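thread from #wetlab-drylab

HS: before we spend reagent money on co-crystallization trials with aspartic acid, can we at least see a predicted complex? here's what I'd submit
DV: go for it
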Amino acid sequence: MSEAPPLTSNRYRDAWCGQVLPDRVDSEVRVAGWVNRRRDHGGLIFIDLRDRTGVVQLVFHPETSGEAFELGHKLRAEDVLSVAGDVVRRSAETVNPELPTGEVELKVTAAELLADSETPPFQIEGYSGEVGEDARLRHRYLDLRRGQMREALMLRHRVTAAMREFLDGEGFVDVETPVLTRSTPEGARDFLVPSSQQQGSFYALPQSPQLFKQLLMVAGFERYYQVARCFRDEATRADRQAEFTQLDIEMSFVDGDDVIAANERLLAHVFDRVGGPKIELPMQRVCYDEAMGRFGTDRPDLRFGLELVDLGDALRGTEFKVFRSVLEGGGSIRGINAGRREMPRSELDGLISRAQELGAKGLVWAFREGEGWRSPTAKFLSEAELADLNQRLGAEEGDLLLLVADERKVTDAVLGQMRIDLAERFGLIDEDEDRLVWIVDWPLLDWNEGEKRWDAMHHPFTAPTGDFDPENPGAARAHAYDVVWNGQELGGGSIRIHSAEVQQQVFAALGIDAETAEARFGFLLEALRFGAPPHGGIAYGVDRIVQRLCGAETIRDVIAFPKTASGFDLLVGAPAPVEDLQLRDLGISVHKRKLAGH
Ligand code: ASP
């Protein structure tokens, strides 16, 4: 626990509970807080009193506590008290080495009940998961009294304080941007807010402050940051909330290396302040293509091997129809050497099901045996092909080999995830190791086969490297970078387009015609014509960083008032139906397709 904050004496207290330490023996103190625990012992009443700094033991004595003794009798868990007393040393047998205040106790001389509490719906002290998360969320103010939750929020505070400290020191200016705004395309659905003054028109809540921070660069602020709330109307997951917090940063007159360098110093500073991992600078960088090639993902966990290997060249002329048709169709065959393993048929079948669940049509498994394979697929492949596959996969006798043949996106997604599954299953991840890496040199665009169009890999404002060739948009690379920590993306950003002309070309490549671009982003295009400096930035998921730092299982454990997986705030009961009158003011009528809560 960090040091107790300063305290001005008043009628409630002159010390924090956590400050009642042996150096105060023989002095009087007054503390205030909540009854953590109460025990009756041979005529004496022991109370553990809790405030945000810790717990101190109070002793109510029938003779020395006077009127307070009566009160001590009536106290129950979570009642709120102000207590005065003498600090005394505990007898040797009653010292509690678990508590910083465990060598002393407070002999109560006066006590005042400030508020009483109903019986809480779950134990605060000694909580061990006896109630489900819904109960905790419904009574979040009680849940937040628990030490673990308090520590998580304190850590969160220290993380954002360290971010602000660093950025302030480097001349970044904290500017707030609107929450009621227009759609900002980050790829999710917008939350909409109807306007009563312009019936039928809606504000969108920002998916990020992206365009405002760019406008601040046009405005000449040069260095901006904001701890900004962002909103994306998408399903909640263990590491995602529809409403979340970003550390948002933008800089002018910089290239990608400048942004990366400033951010490495920022991360090192924050981790240093809060006891996070030690970062060696400069941090490792891996190109996007290499990450996809070796790990099948753009957020690789570098703490273990099991790298993907491309096997297409070994199988170009194969007679095996399944492989041949995939290669002829422009697909890929990729594999993993999972190392020397024993695995019964049932578990191998389990791996096949897993691959199918991840989107593959099937999975080929094999164990290297002599120069060939023990595998149901071995008979379809020539000796030369098997030898070549073994060599490319670095297979030794008994190694388990897993192959997927499909479109490249599928082989990447399936093997990329199976690589992680296998590492967990075989215990290959050293939990004490931390690997931070920049993923750099991204493609600008991503082909969306379903919609038959190009999508922005980051967002539509990311700058292409070099000249943008509208005839060949798929070839464009981007000045973009993501920072990944043990397989989780912490943040990402890019150098932005600062020319209206290039921005229009990129919009056109994304299928946004000139008229739509003008209607939705006219203000940006206009601003870019008034002298926009070269600029770029980044945004971090603050909730995620804190979650990782304290090892919380879900992001909800580091958010004071989070929403459930289905987007409900159980404490206040939101979202909720509204009065017809409110709807009328907004000019809205609702088709009641679903009843709230169902
Ligand atoms: N606006 C981007 C995001 O929310 C981050 C950035 O490009 O700075 O992911």
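DV: Residues 186, 208, 210, 492-494, 537-539 surround aspartic acid (CB under 6 Å).
HS: ok that's useful, forwarding to the group
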